[in-house]
Amino acid sequence: MTSTKPLRAPDLPAMKSRGEKIVMLTAYDATMARLLDAAGADVLLVGDSLGMVILGGTDTLEVTMEDMIRHTRAVRRGARRAFVVADMPFMSYQASIEDAVRNAGRLLQEGGAMAVKLEGGGPVTATVERLASLGIPVIGHLGLTPQSVHFMGGFKRQATTVEAGRRLLDDAAALEKAGAFAVVLECIPADLAREASARLRIPTIGIGSGPDCDGQVLVSYDLLGLTSETPPFVKRKADLDRIVLEAARSFAAEVRSGGSP
Ligand code: KIV
After folding, report:
1. Could you give the CA distance from residue 62 to residue 55 in angstroms, rounded to a whole number?
2. Over 132-165, what HEC string results?
3. What are the tens digits of pLDDT across the range 59-107?
4. Could you give the 3-state DSSP secondary structure of residue 202?
5. Measured between alpha carbons, how far is 206 from 194 in angstroms, rounded to an integer?
6. 230 in a domain, yes or no?
7. CB 205 near ligand 1, within 6 Å
8. Domain containing 113 — which CATH number?
9. Which of 26, 44, 141, 226 to mutate to test the pocket of ligand 1 (most atoms within 8 A of CB)?
10. Domain range enclosing 207
């Protein structure tokens, strides 16, 4: 049975050392946070995927600090046991370490986040080191990093060559050394994700990167069948789109026939 004790940052590496898999799902509001927490999710990620899932954009780049703070606050209100992590949005940490410190601080102070996640390897390791030294827990994110969608030429599988795989392993080691306490590996080959997981002491959380990471994360709206274009690696566990349509149609029919719903 899952303990009801609220999770903290050091619990994630401890779970890896005990061989317990980490369950992470995205959440953007208090209602979904309450449900996913009650279902036993260990980590609720307020992903900047909210730019696509909630705001209807084609990528994550328009998401602002104000968006992230507001949604993180809502998720924190719904969470009881789960550890709440907020994504640092595009351009909130890339221009300078000072920006990163100020904005990570706002996510913790105003949003109630317990940790932040930021994308990239080499260039952000100094930022991760500074945040960690200030007592701000940081999760890294390697592989398909959606904030670099234009640089990558689309949402494409990454690290598919030997050289790129080697770079990813170096980046993962550098993030660990800098003080990150976990790293998300998005859309990379399964054997590379397995190797990274074996080499690192900190847990890897995979998405579209095979079964051998120390945990898995999905965009909850994909899992629940609420998004129209589901990535091929997602196993939909429900068709909530159909249920919502049926309920709304039933309501409309009752109203139009003069009934009182
Ligand atoms: O923004 C997000 O939802 C994410 C996950 C897909 C890992 O970064």
Report:
1. 9
2. HHCCCCEEEEEECCHHHHHHHCCCCCCCCCHHHH
3. 999 999 999 999 999 999 999 999 999 999 999 999 999 999 999 999 9
4. coil
5. 10
6. no
7. no
8. 3.20.20.60
9. 26
10. 11-223
